[in-house]
Amino acid sequence: MKPSSSPLLEPADLALDASGQPASPRYGDVYASRAGALGQARAVYLGGCGLLDTPARWAGRQQFTLLETGFGLGVNFLATWAAWRADPQRCERLHYVSLELHPVRAADLTAHAPAELQPFAAELAAQWPPAVRGLHRIELDAGRVHLLLAFGDATDLAPRLRLAADALYLDGFSPARNPEMWTPELFRALARLTRPGARAASYTVAHAVQKGMSQAGFDLDLQPGWGGKRQRLQATFNPRWKRTRHTLPEPWPAATPRHAVVIGAGIAGAACAQALARNGWTVEVLDAAAQAASGGSAMPAGLAHLQPSADDNLLSRLTRAGMAALRRALPPDAASLARFQPATLTAANAAEARRMQHWQHKVNLPPELAQGAEHGWQVDSAVLANQTVCAAWLDAPCITLRCNATAARLQRDGSAWSVLDAAGQTLARAPQIVLATAHQTPELLAASGLIPGPEWLPLQTLRGQAQALPARFWPALQHLRQPWMGSGYVLRLPEAAAGRLQQTDPPNPQTARDNDWLLIGATFEPAEQPLTSEQAWAHNRAGLQALTTTAPLPDHAGALRHFAGIRAYAPDRLPYCGPLPDLRPLLAAPQRAAGKQLHELPRLPGIALCAGLGSRGLTLAALLAETLVAGLEGTPLPIETDLADALDPARIPLKRLRHPPLPGHAV
Ligand SMILES: Cc1cc2nc3c(=O)[nH]c(=O)nc-3n(C[C@H](O)[C@H](O)[C@H](O)COP(=O)(O)OP(=O)(O)OC[C@H]3O[C@@H](n4cnc5c(N)ncnc54)[C@H](O)[C@@H]3O)c2cc1C
Questions:
Q1: pLDDT tens digits, residue range 616-630?
Q2: Which residue of 275, 381, 434, 547 shows the fewest CB atoms closer than 10 Å?
Q3: Domains parsed from the chain with CATH numbers
Q4: Does residue 648 register a pLDDT over 50?
Q5: What ipTM was reported for this prediction?
Q6: How far apart are CA 101 and CA 613, in angstroms?
Q7: Using a 6 Å cutoff on CB, does residue 322 contact ligand 1?
Q8: Are 477 and 453 in contact (CB under 8 A)?
Q9: Which residue puts its alpha carbon closest to atom 41 of ligand 1?
C-alpha cells in the first residue's frame, strides 16, 4: 500500500474535559478511563496479557514483543516498562511497538504521566520524535527497552510492519468514536503479526471488536471490567489455519552463540559491528587493509543528510530514518567526531532546480528536518569524521578488529561459516557472517560459489576525489557557517578529523598548526579512467562557483591534501542490506522462482550483506546496521517492509530471474 505523500501528521488536539481528564476534541473521547489511566493500564492491559502473573509471560525470555494500537499519552507503555523493570524475572529485552495517527507532544507525556511513572515519562520525552509519518525507534533503559512508534494510519502501517507480537494491546478511542481503529481489516493485519498463543487485551467488548477479533483467529474470554465497565476483553490468538504467506520473524536460536564475523571495516562494517555489539553479540571484524576505514570510507569527513522530495519518496524516507539511526548510534559524547547542524542544499543543475521548485509547495516536514531558505533548502545533516567514527564504533570490548586479513572465500562447515584466505587457511569462523566489503562483495560471493557470477549481485564503481584545505587559505569560505551542497560540496571538518590532518608524514610545516580545515568535494569518475589530482581539484573548485567566485590564496597548493576512494552502487542505487538469497533452488526452477515474492525466496543461513552504500554511506550505515541486526534477532524491523524490500539483496536476482538478460547483455 502506498503511504500518503505528506509526511507531516496532525498532532493530537489534547484538551481537558469538564472533569479535568485529558481528552481529544477531534474524537470527542477521553484518553483513558476516568477511573485512572494507570489502573486501567494495569488491570486491563498488563493483567489481560498475563504480565502481572507470577511468573509473567515474559519471564526468562531473551525478548518479548508487545504491539499496541493507539499510543495516546503512553501510559500503557510507561506502566509496562515500569512493571518490566520491577520484575526480577523479566525478559532481557522488551520491544514495544505502538501505532498512532495523532502523536501527542513531548511535554504532554510528562504533564499527564501518573506521579510514579514520571521518571519513565521524562526519559521518553527527552527522545520524543517529531510528528512525522513512519517508524521512529527509541532506545530506553540503557538499550534494553526498544519503543517503536509507528506514526500514521494504522490500517496503512500495520501491513508494513515486520515483527512477531507476544502480546497485543488494543487501545485507542472507542469504536463508536473512532471506528477506523477497530475494523476487521486491521484485526487481520494485526493477527498476521501475532504469535500463536499470544494474549490480547482491550477495555472494550463492543460487538464489532468481538466479531473482528474472533474472525481474525482469537479465542475470546470476557472478564469482569475495570473502572465502572462491566466487562473487558481478554483473548488468545489461536488461528485455525496454517500460516503460509506471512511467516513470522524467528528469534536467533537460543543454542547458537551470538557471534559474528564482519568482513570489511569501513563505515558499513563498523556500523554493523557496533549494532551487533549493542545487542549482546561478540564480533570479529576482518579487513584486508592495514587499518579500519581504508576503502571508500577513508575520507577525513563526509556529510550525512536528509534528502527531501516532492512526493516523500523512498530515498527521503530512508535518509530521514538514516539520520535518526545515526543519532542513536553515535556515542553521547560524539561532538568532536560528528557535528549535527542544518546544511544548505542547492540545485546541482537545471533539472534539479526545476525539481526543487516543486518542493516549496510539496515538502511538508518540520523545519528542523527541512525548510526552504533564500538560497536553496536547509536540511537536517551531520558532518562526520569518518575514520574517527569507524574507530569509535569498533572500540568495544566485544569487538575484535583484525587488519591485513583478506577473505578469499567463504565456506559453510556444519552450522558455521569459515572465512578462508587465499592460501585456504581459516581466518575466522562464526555462525553469522556479515559482508561489508563494498565493491569487492560480488567477487567474494562468486569465488565462494554462493552466486553463479558477480552479475547476480552487481556493484558498479565510481571513483571519487576530495580535497582538504586549511580554511585560512580560502578567505571567502573561511567563515562558512554550515555545510553547503550543490554541484559540489564544502564543509568544515569536525575537530577529530582536523586533528588527524595536522599530523602528516612527512610533517608539512605549512599546515602543522592548522586546526580549521575545509573539505571540498567530490568528483565522480569511472574507476578505469581516473582524473589526476590536479584535474580533480579543478573540478571540485568549479563545483563551488555558485557559492563563491573568489579563488583560494595563490599559495594554497602546498597546503592541499588529496583523498580518493571508490564508491559502490547497485544498479538501482540502493544498498544491499539483508540475508543473502539461496540461488541454487531458484536457478533449478527459474520460471517458478520468477513468480515468487521477495519474502518467499529461500535464504542462505547465517550470511547477510551490508554493501553498495554508494554516495550515502554516512547517512545510511547506522540504519542499515540496525535493520540487519533486527532481521537476525527477529525483533521488530525499524523500517517499513516496503523500505526493507527496496534494500533486500534478493531484489536484483529476482529481477534477473523475471527478466533474463538477452544473450550478450550483462545485466
Ligand atoms: C570522495 C568521496 C566522497 C564521499 N563523500 C561522502 C559524503 O559526503 N557522504 C556520504 O554519505 N558518503 C560519501 N562518500 C561515500 C562513502 O564514503 C561510502 O558510501 C562509504 O565509505 C562506503 O562504506 P563501506 O564500508 O561500504 O565501504 P568501504 O569504506 O570501501 O569499506 C569496505 C572495506 O572492506 C574491505 N574489504 C573488501 N574486500 C575485502 C576482503 N575480501 N577481505 C577483507 N576485507 C575486505 C576493504 O578493505 C574496505 O576497508 C564519499 C565517497 C568518496 C569516494
A1: 999 999 999 999 999
A2: 547
A3: 15-237 (3.40.50.150), 259-293+390-459+571-658 (3.50.50.60)
A4: yes
A5: 0.99
A6: 32
A7: no
A8: no
A9: 407
